[in-house]
C-alpha cells in the first residue's frame, strides 16, 4: 500500500518533466524558425543590393563609353614665360603704372640700378644692409651700412640720416629687433617717389630691395606675370 503513492508521485514528476521538455523544445523550434526568417530577409536584402550595384556598374560603363567617344583636340601647351622689357616703357591702368613682380630701381645718390622685389603683401619697404654702424653728425643720428649682395658687382657703402626705428620680429627666434629706418628717393620707370626703408639683412634673399605698399599705393598696380617691365633707371636720366 505504501508503494502506490510513491509510484503515483514518480509518474506525476515524469509527466511534468516530459511536458517541460516539450515546451522547451517548442520554444527552441520557434526561435530557429525566427532566425531562419531573419536570414531569408537578409539574403533578400543582399540580393537587392547586389542587383543595384550591378545596375550602377552598367551605368558607369555606359558613361565611360560616352567619354571615350569625346574627341579632345590636341594642343601643345607651352610653359608661361615671364615677360621682360629692355627698353624704357610704361604700362598704364588708368592713371597708375603697371609693374611686374620684380623691377629695376635706382636709389638716391646711387649710380647703380638695383633689382627690387615688388611685394603688395608687405606694408613697408626694406633695403639690404650689413655692417650697420650708427653715429652722430651735426647733432643728428646717422647710419652707415653696406649694400653687399650677390646681384651687385661690388660693395656699396651708404650713409643716410636715421628718421626713426622700427621693431622687427625675427621669424627664427620671435625676438623683437630694432632696426633703423631711412628715407630715400626711388626712381622706377616713370615713377620718382621718396619712401622709407627699414634696414635689414637681405643677403639670403633674391633681391636687395623690397618695395611694399607704402611705395606702391595710389601710383601703381602689380601684374605678377611680368618681370622688369621698366628699363634700368638712373638719377642721371
TrEMBL record:
GO BP of this protein: proteolysis
Transmembrane segments: none
GO molecular function, one term: peptidase activity
Domain annotation Retropepsin-like aspartic endopeptidase: ranges: 98-232
Annotated signal peptide: 1-17
Keywords per UniProt: Coiled coil, Hydrolase, Protease, Signal
Coiled-coil annotated spans: 18-66
Pfam families listed in its UniProt record: Zn_protease (PF05618)
Stated name of the protein: ATP-dependent Zn protease
Organism this protein belongs to: Agarivorans gilvus
Amino acid at each position: 500500500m505504501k508503494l502506490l503513492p510513491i509510484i503515483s508521485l514518480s509518474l506525476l514528476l515524469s509527466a511534468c518533466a516530459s511536458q517541460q521538455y516539450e515546451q522547451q523544445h517548442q520554444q527552441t523550434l520557434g526561435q530557429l524558425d525566427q532566425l531562419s526568417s531573419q536570414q531569408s530577409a537578409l539574403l533578400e536584402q543582399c540580393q537587392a543590393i547586389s542587383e543595384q550595384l550591378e545596375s550602377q556598374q552598367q551605368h558607369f560603363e555606359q558613361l565611360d563609353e560616352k567619354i571615350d567617344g569625346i574627341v579632345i583636340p590636341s594642343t601643345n601647351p607651352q610653359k608661361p614665360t615671364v615677360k621682360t622689357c629692355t627698353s624704357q616703357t610704361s604700362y598704364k591702368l588708368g592713371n597708375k603704372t603697371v609693374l611686374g613682380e620684380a623691377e629695376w630701381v635706382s636709389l638716391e645718390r646711387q649710380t647703380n640700378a638695383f633689382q627690387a622685389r615688388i611685394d603688395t603683401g608687405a606694408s613697408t619697404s626694406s633695403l639690404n644692409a650689413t655692417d650697420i654702424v650708427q653715429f652722430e653728425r651735426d647733432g643728428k643720428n646717422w647710419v652707415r651700412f653696406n649694400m653687399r649682395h650677390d646681384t651687385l658687382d661690388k660693395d656699396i657703402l651708404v650713409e643716410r640720416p636715421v628718421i626713426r626705428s622700427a621693431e622687427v620680429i625675427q621669424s627664427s627666434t620671435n625676438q623683437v629687433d630694432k632696426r633703423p629706418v631711412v628715407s630715400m628717393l626711388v626712381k622706377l620707370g616713370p615713377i620718382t617717389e621718396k619712401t622709407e626703408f627699414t634696414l635689414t639683412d637681405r643677403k639670403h634673399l633674391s633681391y636687395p630691395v623690397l618695395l611694399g605698399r607704402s611705395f606702391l599705393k595710389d601710383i601703381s598696380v602689380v601684374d605678377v606675370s611680368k618681370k622688369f617691365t621698366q628699363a634700368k633707371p638712373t638719377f642721371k636720366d
